[in-house]
Amino acid sequence: MKLLKYCPSCGRESLHWDGEKKWSCPECNFTLYNNVAGAVAVVIRCGDEVYLTRRNRDPKKGKLDLAGGFVDPKESAEETCRRELFEELQLDVDISNLKYITSLPNVYQYKEIDYNTIDLFYEYNVAEKFEVNLELSEISEAVWIQLNQLNLDDIAFDSQKRFFEDYLKK
Predict the structure, then answer these.
(1) Which of 59, 116, 127, 142 is 20 to 30 A from 107, alpha carbon to alpha carbon?
(2) SS (H, E, C) the chain
(3) Both 48 and 26 in a single domain?
(4) Are both 106 and 88 inside the same structural domain?
(5) The CATH number of the domain where 151 resides is what?
(6) Do 70 and 107 sit in the same domain of this protein?
(7) Confidence at 136, pLDDT banded by 50, 70, 90
(8) If pLDDT is split at 50, 70 and 90, which confidence band does 135 have?
(9) Long-range contacts of 29-36 (CB under 8 A, 24+ apart)
(10) Statement to judge: residues 25 and 48 lie in one domain
């Protein structure tokens, strides 16, 4: 992980990383916490198939991903699901039909910084399969995949791999 060196309070090259969750400056007693960020992932399901996207950016460019993203300030996890599904897939969902499943910790590395996240997993069932016009800046394609043909090595993030390991057993 790329470490911060300069204290944002006193400007000295004195920040110390504790290896887990905070930077501190012994010169001015400033502390910066690397708190866990909230993120959502939505399993869009039609029968025995799930709708997955292929990442068009790092981290994990080219790997399969669930639709979702980071929770914005003053936004509920369900509102994040609605916003992200619309931004990524132009899919307008009724959040009352989202089913919360579980949460799993994850590490999201972006530009050499590790962000600890808590990934909240939801399921959204649809009666019929659909195709959407994609926001190609983030997604290169979206595909329906039979659950029994899902290869966990193709999944981008460790939390989603762990999620699907359990999800496929049910």
Answers:
(1) 142
(2) CCCCCCCCCCCCCCCEECCCCEEECCCCCCEEECCCEEEEEEEEEECCEEEEEEECCCCCCCCEECEEEECCCCCCHHHHHHHHHHHHHCCCCCHHHCEEEEEEEEEEEECCEEEEEEEEEEEEECCCCCCCCCCCCCEEEEEEEEHHHCCHHHECCHHHHHHHHHHCCC
(3) no
(4) yes
(5) 3.90.79.10
(6) yes
(7) low
(8) low
(9) 32/4, 32/8, 34/115, 34/116, 35/116, 36/105, 36/116, 36/117, 36/118
(10) no
Model pTM greater than 0.85?
yes
Whether residue 96 sits in one domain with residue 18: no
Same domain flag for 22 and 72: no
Angle subtended at Cα 90 by Cα 86 and Cα 96, rounded to the nearest 5 degrees: 45
Dihedrals phi, psi of 45, to nearest 5 degrees: -125, 140
pLDDT in tens, 87-122: 888 899 999 999 999 999 998 887 777 888 999 999
Q: Which two tokens stand for residue 7?
A: 């204290």
Please, are residues 85 and 91 in contact by the beta-carbon 8 Å criterion?
yes
CA 146 to chain centre: 22
User: Number of structural domains, the chain?
Assistant: 2
Residue 140 has pLDDT above 90, yes or no: no
